[in-house]
Specification:
By secondary structure, the chain is an alpha+beta fold. It is 27% helix and 29% strand. Strands 3, 7, 8, 9, 10, 11, 12, 21 and 24 form a nine-stranded mixed β-sheet that branches. A hairpin with a 5-residue loop joins strand 11 and strand 12. Helix 2 runs antiparallel to helix 6, helix 2 crosses helix 11 and helix 12 crosses helix 15. The longest helix has 21 residues. The chain is globular. It binds one RNA strand of 78 nucleotides through helix 4, helix 13 and helix 14.
Length: 582
RNA sequence: CGGGGCGUGGCGCAGUCUGGCUAGCGCGUCUGGUUUGGGACCAGAAGGUCGGAGGUUCAAAUCCUCUCGCCCCGACCA
């Protein structure tokens, strides 16, 4: 492609509103253009990168035995009603009504496609002989995000690869899951991303049932904990926090003292009023676990994790208790609950074990106790891991320190179980003529996020640094003076030869000064820059420079096309050769 | 949805507090010329209902009211 014939609107300055590198660079490098909040046009260059990512995804899905199809984005609302997800998605589900002849038709734009694919399988699959089956598509998804942000990282319309596996047994599901997991590793390896596969919320199946593929980035929306020591990684919701080594325990010589704390119903307010640190306080949260009130004790500076609490209690549903329930259980308004004299079951996080002489709510309006001691002033029913992990917490595997890092979620694999197959009657007959719901897994990749995460983590001060696998073009051919006949003659010939050799070449044939071309070349980040300029041309040489290397090299013009094509091919092969899973 | 910020030629901004003549600057664009290895120079030109509506005033980019949009923090995120 010749630059002058396509649309690559590079920008010298950062557009107002773009802050994070991937957003800034997508706009400045002419990859994308914003239409409105959360909706972007992919310009020719950005689209090429997106298509590259798509192709890698498709190749690896096919290799893993998944079968591609394409479902409508437009779906009947009834399908979502059958699984209860109209409510579950709430405002995120984009719904609308249209008139067809005399009827109102209620539609939804698919935010994901479990319903559609399960309904499809229900129609056509009825025997164990047809399973296992993994279906996938690459399609635009729609979610009415409450707050689209971070440029192209969180948008209301995005390209997603979604795959769904259907199996006859849990073993089968595990096999399908592992295939997808390995395919994901290959995909992200080939895309040149540094990622972590982290344990994520497991849902109804339990155990090791969900992994998120995370790219560490300061601007990521998600948080993961990572142990540099043993490699343990998990998302914030899932990360286990092991019990710490028990300290000898300070002498519990403090007396339980009731103190006035008028209108101080928060950890922050009480700590300020009493001059104590939040870590010296015990936070008492009253939850409704399947409608029964339960007290959960946490160190004042820790955050409750409702998923962990739900699992620890073995409850189906856990939520913070309503103010009336709290008042009834504690005899005090919200903010003054404490374990002393409390009659409901008391659970405590491991880190409360060692606390002595803590500050706790007094179960009375505007009052707290200081010097509360477990075993003397109150008892804890059971200890468990009930809180979010934080920076510096002990690693559950090796005891080392966990680091809390921001990350961009680029993929998610999940063992679903039978939730959708039951709701939508996707059943099969087994060899004993018994009817069972198919056991499902679902597997998603945000294709746009591959591009955004790559730019976010692999740019430098001059612009994007594409890996060969995702680069919109492999070679940028830059004749430095388009009015000089020998230069343009050589450039045109090289362009033709490279194109014929199957190399994706972008020729900067604009009548611009060399400085402009060099700056733009760095900005758009094409891997190999080939310069045809008077200086080296008079010695019969061309200049080659890899985007990620500092120094340029020269090669003879004679035979240059073949040499460049070979270099490009070697670089293409490298991405395949470095995947983790061979 | 709560809090904060911002809307002025294609892009980045000044001007707004303290109302005043023809709304400026840099980049980009167009014409002509000189240049040609890291965002050139000279001369000329085009391009703006100052986000929108209403109001105050002799006079509004500027003050007031409403409204739309964008960005950031938070809440939310199958």
């Amino acid at each position: 492609m010749r630059w002058s014939q396509t649309l690559i609107p590079t920008m010298k300055e950062t557009p107002e509103g773009a802050e994070i590198p991937s957003h800034v660079l997508m706009l400045r490098a002419g990859l994308a253009s914003q239409l409105m909040a959360g909706a972007y046009t992919y310009l020719p260059l950005g689209l090429r990168a997106l298509r590259k990512a798509e192709r890698i995804v498709r190749e690896e899905m096919d290799r893993a035995g998944a079968i591609e199809l394409h479902m409508p984005a437009l779906t009947p609302i009834q399908l979502w009603q059958r699984t209860g997800r109209v409510d579950a998605f709430g405002n995120v589900l984009i719904q609308f009504q249209v008139k067809r002849q005399n009827r109102q038709v209620h539609l939804a734009l698919g935010p994901t496609h479990e319903e559609v694919v399960t309904d499809l399988v229900a129609r056509y699959v009825s025997s164990y002989r047809q399973l296992p089956l993994t279906l996938y598509q690459i399609q635009t998804k729609f979610r009415n995000e409450e707050r689209p942000r971070f440029g192209v990282l969180r948008t209301s319309e995005f390209l997603m690869k979604d795959a769904y596996s259907f199996d006859t047994s849990l073993d089968g599901l595990n096999t399908s899951y592992d295939k997808m997991y390995r395919a994901y590793c290959r995909i992200f390896d080939r895309c040149g991303l540094d990622y972590l596969a982290v344990e994520a919320e497991s849902g109804p199946i339990g155990g090791d049932a969900s992994h998120e593929f995370m790219v560490l980035a300061d601007n990521g929306e998600d948080s993961v904990v990572h142990c540099a020591g043993c490699g343990y990684a998990a998302n914030l919701e899932r990360a286990e926090v092991g019990p710490r080594g028990q300290s000898a325990g300070a002498a519990a010589n403090a007396a339980l003292t009731k103190v006035d704390t008028p209108r101080a119903g928060s950890i922050e307010a009480v700590s300020k009023m009493l001059g104590c640190r939040p870590s010296e306080m015990i936070k008492t949260l009253i939850y409704s676990a399947d409608e029964n009130p339960v007290a959960v004790l946490l160190r004042g500076d820790h955050e409750a994790n409702e998923g962990k609490i739900r699992r620890a209690l073995g409850a189906a549903k856990v939520e913070l208790a309503a103010p009336e329930v709290i008042a009834q259980a504690t005899g005090a308004p919200v903010g003054f609950a404490g374990p002393v004299g409390l009659k409901i079951p008391i659970w405590a996080d491991h880190d409360v074990t060692d606390m002595t002489a803590a500050v706790v709510g007094a179960n009375a309006d505007d009052a707290h106790f200081t010097g509360a001691v477990r075993g003397r002033d109150f008892e804890v029913g059971q200890f468990a891991d009930l809180r979010n992990a934080g920076d510096g917490d002990p690693c559950p595997r090796c005891g080392g320190a966990l680091a809390l890092r921001h990350a961009i979620e680029v993929g998610h694999v999940f063992k679903l179980g039978t939730k959708y197959s039951e709701a939508l009657s996707a059943r099969f007959l087994d060899e004993k003529e018994q009817l069972h719901p198919a056991i499902m897994g679902c597997y998603g990749i945000g294709v746009n996020r591959i591009i955004a995460a790559l730019i976010e983590t692999k740019h430098d001060e001059n612009g994007v640094v594409w890996p060969m696998s995702l680069a919109p073009y492999e070679v940028l051919l830059a004749p430095l003076n388009v009015n000089q006949q020998d230069v343009m003659g050589a450039a045109n010939q090289l362009y033709d030869e490279l194109t014929r050799a199957g190399v994706e070449v972008l020729m900067d044939d604009r009548d611009q000064r060399p400085g402009v071309k060099f700056k733009d070349a760095d900005l758009i980040g094409v891997p190999l820059r080939v310069v045809v300029g008077g200086r080296s041309l008079k010695d019969g040489q061309l200049e080659l420079k890899w985007r990620w290397k500092g120094e340029a090299e020269t090669i003879p013009l004679a035979g240059a096309a073949a040499a460049i094509a070979a270099l490009v091919q070697a670089e293409r092969d490298l991405a395949h050769a470095t995947t983790r899973d061979q």
